Amino acid sequence: MKETLYLVIPCYNEEAVLNETAKRLLAKINSMIEIDIIKDDSKILFVNDGSKDKTWSIIETLHNENKIFSGVNLSRNKGHQNALLAGLMTAKDYADMTISLDADLQDDIDVIDKFVEEYYNGSDVVYGVRSSRATDTFFKRTTALGFYKFMNVLGADVMYNHADYRLMSKRALDGLNQFREVNLFLRGLVPLIGYKYSVVEYERHERFAGESKYPLKKMIAFALDGITSLSIKPIRIITGLGFFIFTISFVALIYSIIVKLIGKASIGWTSLTVSIWMIGGIQLLSLGVIGEYVGKIYNETKQRPRFIIADKLIDNDKKDR
Ligand code: UDP
Ligand code: MG
């Protein structure tokens, strides 16, 4: 039952961690090959996401030293999600299963065995879910919690405390390949593929070197992108708001007529100013939200490539299927 596993690791400016990461992953994969739970043509696939530092040359050196290290070099920086997709779509031609993880090894690699076990038990997707956030700063913990709450309220169902540490089978990857969207939010897409899934809990460590590429600003952008990519609930909320204001305006209309009829109509400057500002504000905000969707449609209709692969270093035969 032994099958081929590919670890897929997107890397952007990771020269500070890459050699150490490679060492730890190599030890892990070798131990798994030794106890015969994965095939010996399994690989560690780094995706260089247009790094400005020596990341790609480190990957090349690793590949020259040991062919278990493979690499995909993107033509430019395309962001974590696209880089990950590039790696997964490359790996699916060679592997039976893939596990995606970050270059900083914040995700505990000792649970990889459990992922694979769940795969052999028949799961096509195995989600790595953080059991606690003890190592995160209070700030990161609260913003992350807010992130999931916010997402779910606005209709984007994502697995709680799951980032992109997950196993996917070849079949699940073929499914993912049929989602052609340019606005990529993998965490939201993977559940839509379907198939049997399971969950493995793990502890998340601190980044051992280098720095996070996800500051708060990027996290908020990522959350908003995720919501508008997965759900049209924000537009529905605007519709609801429109109904609500319409109802109020109706009451205001009747009130104004009555006041007029009994001859008590006064200048009414305050109420007028407030309503102009408030309704103007709501309209602009609503336009902005709808504009966000129009922008998405614009990007989707162009069907631009999600990534372009410049170089590929993989010493393996493509599986014929
Ligand atoms: N990453 C990438 N392209 C980018 C930004 C990040 O491939 O444009 C990679 C990065 O090298 C890392 C992973 O995405 O392997 C997650 O980034 P990071 O660890 O900085 O995020 P955090 O864990 O702080 O959320
Ligand atoms: Mg990280």
Automatic annotation (TrEMBL):
Domain Glycosyltransferase 2-like: 7-174
Pfam families: Glycos_transf_2
Membrane topology (UniProt): Multi-pass membrane protein
UniProt keyword Membrane, yes or no: yes
Highest taxon in the source lineage: Bacteria
Location(s), subcellular: Membrane
InterPro entries linked: Glyco_trans_2-like, Glycosyltransferase_2, Nucleotide-diphossugar_trans
Keyword line: Glycosyltransferase, Membrane, Transferase, Transmembrane, Transmembrane helix
Transmembrane regions listed in the UniProt entry: 237-262, 274-294
UniProt entry tagged with the keyword Transit peptide: no
Protein name, per record: Glycosyltransferase family 2 protein
Organism: Clostridium cibarium
